[in-house]
Design a protein that fits this description.
Blueprint: H1 8-11, H2 16-31, E1 41-45, E2 52-55, E3 71-74, H3 89-101, E4 107-111, H4 114-120, H5 132-135, E5 141-144, H6 153-161, E6 170-173, E7 177-182, H7 185-208, H8 217-228, H9 233-247
Parallel strand pairs: 5-6
Antiparallel strand pairs: 1-2, 1-4, 2-3, 4-7, 6-7
Helix pairs in contact: 2-7, 2-9, 3-6, 4-7, 7-9
Length: about 250
Amino acid sequence: MSVTSISPSQKNIEHYEERVDMACSFRWAVRYNLHEAVANHFSLAVNDEGTQFLMNPNQRHFSRVRASDLLLLDANDPATMDREDAPDPTAWGLHGSIHRHCAHARCVMHCHSIHATVLASLKDSRLPAIDQNSAMFFNRQVIDEGYGGLAFEEEGERCAAMLSDPKVKTMIMGNHGVLVIGSSVADAFNRLYYFERATENYIRALQTGQPLRELSEEIAEKTASEIENYPSQAHRHLEELKAILDSEGSDYRD
């Protein structure tokens, strides 16, 4: 579907533009091989308090998620799991907890991408700054070393407590996967993409058995700050991804 063929009724869907950005991120998570079967979840806060959020429906494959499919949930609604279209219980436990307690976490993306999960499986799950991509995460990552099973509400509350520092944008979920947060869909998805790229580079570097050329703390922090302030890079990344889908006639905007 081209942008010009969107009907007025589609544009009148609540939070339509945000839904479009989210739907695009799901489609490209598949193309970048960041997804896993019908598991994994992305969410986006749509009110100032951060407690109302959009999230993918229960066990819908990322390649099929459309703008209109996204659930609109309230982290403070105890009846959420009684809804006919209730979200996945682990998605509710993890994302509901984060949106309930971390207003700065506007967009939350959790997946089990291959290289990030390999990193999360190592005894030392730290991502060191060995290149420009990995420097992006210097002093901005937290490692969860207390995996306690599926992310139902108790586990979700525990994870949310580890994201209280707004500087921390990436959680390496030990024995599990990765979770990133961002100020927008573009910001979070760009971070997710680069974290997987950075972890792949790191894992491949380890496989050589050669010593790593790790950046100094001063240069790593300087690089991370420069990337954070690089003008419109995350926004342009997402806009280009939408443009590609539009040129292909994708139904993600429906």
